[in-house]
Design goal:
Blueprint: E1 6-10, H1 17-32, E2 36-39, E3 49-50, H2 51-60, E4 63-67, H3 73-84, E5 88-93, H4 98-107, E6 116-117, H5 121-131, H6 141-146, E7 158-161, H7 168-179, E8 184-187, H8 197-206, E9 210-213, H9 222-238, E10 243-248, E11 256-257, E12 262-265, H10 268-289, H11 331-338, E13 343-346, H12 352-364, E14 369-374, H13 381-389, H14 394-422, H15 432-443, H16 445-448, H17 451-465, H18 471-481, H19 484-498, E15 503-508, H20 521-543, E16 554-561, H21 562-570, E17 581-582, H22 588-602, H23 608-615, E18 619-620, E19 623-624, H24 625-632, H25 637-653, H26 661-683, H27 690-695, E20 703-705, H28 706-715, H29 723-732, E21 736-741, E22 744-747, H30 754-768, E23 773-776, H31 781-784, E24 789-790, E25 793-794, E26 796-799
Parallel strand pairs: 1-2, 1-4, 3-11, 4-5, 5-6, 7-8, 7-9, 9-10, 10-12, 13-16, 13-17, 14-15, 15-16, 22-26
Antiparallel strand pairs: 18-19, 20-23, 21-22, 21-23, 24-25
């Protein structure tokens, strides 16, 4: 075969031992003349490494070799590029570097891709000749894992890989992206830190462009975040998609010059400027090429081709347009439609955003309604905190929060009405529509700016101008700053305009997105408690009818994370007077309907049960496959959809005509790491040491006594005084279940169930003279590699 086969070798430039080892192996391989290997360090031009030169070298190569030991962003970028260019890939890794091996495992995007282990140059050469990757150049990751996942038709959506931290630059970039009104798929690390390779591929393949926001290297968690994003960036570059990579100034200068696809910024305004022109180009190109989205899954007959099944996304923001095809109506949703309550509470992944989207869609179908959705992409939460910290008196702080929310909600209702009026071809200046239009335009940015901008302006004005020591003087100052006179005029005109409307509905979500600092919780709780308090007052205010105002039927529904709501209620004087509805999925039949309806949406007129039996194997480890999956997940829509999508993707990648048992077991591995990372995101800042604590459970028993758990806490550096708090938190996160009968463990799905479970456990312990035991939820077993049997019996667990 001689030198007809060419290879390109990518590897990290540090530590120094790796390049030297690689070069030794390359020399020996080249001496054998089976193929010629070129290293990335041979691509220098005038001492610089230009990405275009390196990419051209990869283009010319038949085989791409990469060493992922101490993987750096350059190697991951080049690997993604090579995969996108349909190259045969051969990977190496030195597993003797334990931390490096753990880093590779945590990347998770490459879970289905194997690697050849080595510890010296001779072992690299031996592995090369043993595995002979040059003999099967057509066996590419693109063919095996990407082609099966691609759909012939899919909506073109901008892919935005968001920064993992709510920095000022991240907030402003998100607002900028939102302002372009491009259909966008958001990958938010606060929702899910990583997706599968198939997910990234399908989104990139159909995207008009990709924005990648890397983290500054001094920020927490930046290494893993940037490695994942570098790989996805390379994949996009290999697919020849418009790509914008952004990073803070402290992102180290890479040895490779990424030229026009990589930009560093020192200030948030620079980040926005860099993105503005890029988005304008992408938006213009998108408008030229846009075609109507064709619902591919509905246009083909039932077949064994699993690629034809699209069960949607597990994050509602990414499936807003098609959610109505398979949305499951529950009691909380129906009460939102009826306007019976003001707060919907649920854990991450429980369906809060999906309920908001569907409520907005359903209520908007009746043209007599005015629907106002307040869902800020990001907002200056630290500004609110700084303002709150300057005010010590509880009464003043409460009045400020309520006054601020009143201004924001009044102006948001007016803005929704104004946007509706602007769509009309003619507006009578003397009619209520004309008067409101004139008022809004005269006031200008005070009323017309985006929610986040109005909030920021109000906070800055309040911060600079609050005066008065007495509560009376304080209230007068607040009234002047928040334009009380304008609000009174607004109330009058909204009454004239909307009194004949059936309903005005305000739906609010995303208000807890920016919470990430422990010392802010008290002040943020005060801020959101002000919203919960004022919501009821606003509806009463709009009910009033007298000489200067007409009644309007206004309802306000606020969607909040359950842990945030619980924190707010701790500070509430009368928490029982704030009504709430909880999104719980305790009924497995109702939960499984989420997947059944999504399958049925692909094949109209067919029974979902029949579809399941045709697509999925009947049993897994002697359990019905549905029951097995439900037993392995935390009972939430997001978890179920993720697991089933992973099983389908695995089956497609393996060329199976249906989802086999081994596909579900592989999906279990993917899901287990997903939920491990998801629970850390849900933890937020409650227990900063959570990741360290969870890793202490690796390889142990899944059933533990309390003293064993406390030993783990001590090893993780948790002070004894915090042991009970951390234990309660692990129970609230559903990581641990509590034994209530012999080998029967109860897992809670909301924090207010903990007391009930505790009481059941205490009675069992007292009656049977037992010692308290806890069980790790099965969702975490595979990733943590814990034992799943005890005393010869399989463990049992139940989700409340």
């Amino acid at each position: 075969m001689g030198k007809s086969i060419s290879s390109f070798f990518a590897y990290p430039f540090q530590p120094d031992s790796i390049p030297e080892t690689i070069k030794g192996a390359v020399n020996k391989i080249n001496e054998g003349q089976v193929c010629y290997v070129k290293t990335w360090q041979e691509c220098a031009i005038s001492g610089k490494f230009i990405i275009d030169v390196i990419c051209r070298a990869i283009d010319k190569a038949d085989l791409f070799i990469a060493d992922l030991t101490w993987a750096n962003p350059n190697v991951l970028f080049e690997l993604g590029y090579a995969i996108g260019k349909k190259k045969r890939v051969w990977l190496l890794l030195d597993p003797s570097f334990t931390e490096s091996k753990n880093l590779f495992d945590q990347l998770r995007i490459l879970t289905t891709v194997g690697y050849a282990p080595y510890s010296n140059s001779s072992e690299i050469v031996n592995q090369f000749y043993k595995q002979q990757p040059w003999l099967d150049l057509q066996d590419t990751i693109f063919v095996r894992s990407i082609v099966p996942a691609l759909q012939e038709y899919a909506e073109s959506r901008l892919l935005y890989l968001k920064n993992q931290h709510e920095t000022e630059a991240s907030i402003k970039l998100s607002q900028l992206v939102d302002s372009f009104n491009l259909p966008t798929t958001l990958s938010d690390p606060k929702e899910s830190s990583v997706q599968t390779l198939a997910w990234y591929v399908t989104k990139i393949w159909h995207a008009p462009g990709i924005i990648v926001h890397l983290s500054g290297e001094s920020r927490r968690g930046s290494q893993l975040h940037n490695l994942r994003y570098a790989f996805v960036s390379g994949l996009a570059y290999g697919f020849q998609k418009p790509l914008l990579m952004l990073a803070e100034a402290d992102y180290k200068t890479p040895p490779i010059d990424y030229s026009d696809i990589f930009s560093r910024y020192k200030k948030p305004s620079e980040c926005v400027e860099m993105s503005q022109s890029w988005l304008e180009k992408v938006s213009s190109e998108y408008a030229k090429n846009q075609k109507e989205f064709r619902e591919y899954a509905k246009k083909i007959a039932l077949s064994a081709d699993l690629r034809s099944f699209n069960i949607g996304e597990y994050i509602a923001e990414n499936e807003e347009r098609i959610l109505n095809e398979y949305f499951i109506e529950t009691e909380p949703f129906l009460r939102v439609i009826e306007g019976q309550h003001s707060v919907v509470v649920g854990r991450k992944g429980s369906g809060k955003t999906a309920n908001l989207y569907m409520a907005a869609r359903r209520l908007s179908e009746d043209k007599r309604n005015l629907v106002c959705v307040i869902k800020p992409v990001s907002y200056d939460v630290q500004g609110v905190v700084r303002l709150s910290k300057t005010i010590k008196e509880k009464d003043k702080k409460g009045y400020l929060a309520e006054a601020l929310w009143k201004f924001l909600i009044f102006s948001e209702i007016a803005l929704a009405a104004y946007k509706e009026i602007k769509q009309r071809p003619y507006v009578d200046e003397k009619a209520p529509e004309g008067k409101l239009k004139e008022l809004m335009e005269v006031q200008g940015s005070i009323l017309l700016d985006d929610f986040a901008v109005r909030l920021e302006r109000c906070v800055n004005n309040l911060f600079s101008n609050i005066t008065g020591n007495s509560l009376y003087d304080f209230r007068i100052a607040i009234s002047e700053i928040l334009h009380d006179s304008v609000l009174n005029t607004l109330r009058n005109q909204l009454g004239d305009l909307l009194t004949k409307r059936k309903r005005v509905i305000v739906l609010m979500d995303n208000l807890d997105k920016a919470w990430d600092r422990r010392d802010d919780l008290e002040h943020l709780s005060d801020f959101l408690f002000g919203l919960l308090s004022v919501a009821k007052n606003i509806t009463k205010e709009f009910e009033k009818h007298d000489y200067w105002r007409k009644p309007v039927n206004v309802s306000i529904t606020i969607f909040l994370r359950s842990d945030i709501f619980e924190g707010i209620m701790k500070n509430a004087r009368e928490p029982d007077k704030i009504p709430c509805d909880k999104l719980l999925w305790n009924d497995p039949v109702v939960l499984m309907r989420i997947v059944d309806e999504r399958l049925a949406a692909n094949r109209e007129g067919l029974d979902p049960a029949l579809l399941w039996s045709r697509v999925f194997c009947p049993t897994v480890r002697n359990k019905p496959s549905k029951e097995y999956i439900l037993d392995m997940i935390l009972p939430r829509p997001r978890d179920l959809v993720y697991f089933v999508k992973a099983a389908l993707s695995t089956a497609v990648n393996r060329g199976h005509s249906c989802v086999e048992e081994r596909d579900i077991l592989e999906a279990e591995k993917l899901y287990s790491q997903f939920v491990f990372e998801a629970v850390q995101i849900e933890n937020g800042i409650s227990v900063p040491e959570l990741e360290k604590i969870l890793f202490e459970f690796v390889g142990g028993s899944s059933i533990l006594y309390k003293n064993e758990i406390f030993e783990i806490f001590s090893k993780s550096g948790i002070n004894r005084k915090r042991h009970n708090y951390v234990l309660r938190h692990l129970i609230a996160l559903s990581f641990l279940g509590v034994e209530i009968k012999l080998n029967e463990f109860r897992f809670c799905t909301s924090s207010d169930e903990i007391q009930k479970i505790k009481r059941l456990s205490e009675r069992y312990i007292a009656a049977e003279n037992k010692t308290q035991r806890y069980q790790i939820h099965k969702a975490f077993h595979t990733y943590l590699e814990v034992e799943t049997f005890v005393e010869g019996k399989e463990e049992s667990g139940s989700n409340i």
